[in-house]
């Protein structure tokens, strides 16, 4: 009975970590959406609020880190439980960096909103949606232990990379045709690069999920 009680407490502690990670993931997804909205709708106030919101992401990172280290010290987990906790410690780092990228997008939006529009934003929202879906699916794969979904996330990174290249090619033509557009085009390219990095962080999470499930490091092996 005592052993069963211990096991139940341990399971509860792992569930707390899992729920906190999902909470952090949900907040990060909202940040991606709001960052893009502040750019597309030229909403500088929303950009400012989203930059300030990054503080909540940083706080959650510290809370989850502390909980993971506490469980490691008190329970000394092994095998799959140990992989789960070490993976959680890495996932919070990727989520925190996604929050940083969202804040960077908002800073560029704040600057771009003070200038005339260069062109309608069409591919950037598509890219943001794809990157946000990758983050959500990577976390779903983590929670469900779904390696097939994690592999899909890794493969979807190619789509975001192609959109990034397409946006950069298009903006290059703007800059070549009219040097007055260079400053605005470079800021939009920086936004595109931020989204590409968000997709890379989602891919990192998915690769770690595959390692947690399969015990196999597949980094740099999925085309």
TrEMBL record:
Main function: Plays a role in the regulation of phosphate uptake.
Name of protein: Phosphate-specific transport system accessory protein PhoU
PhoU domain ranges (all copies): 21-108, 125-209
Top-level taxon: Bacteria
Subcellular location: Cytoplasm
Entries under InterPro entries matching the protein: PhoU, PhoU_dom
Lineage of producing organism: Bacteria, Pseudomonadati, Thermodesulfobacteriota, Desulfuromonadia, Geobacterales
Organism: Geomonas oryzisoli
Quaternary state and interactors: Homodimer.
Keyword tags: Cytoplasm, Phosphate transport, Transport
Family statement drawn from the similarity comment of this UniProt entry: Belongs to the PhoU family.
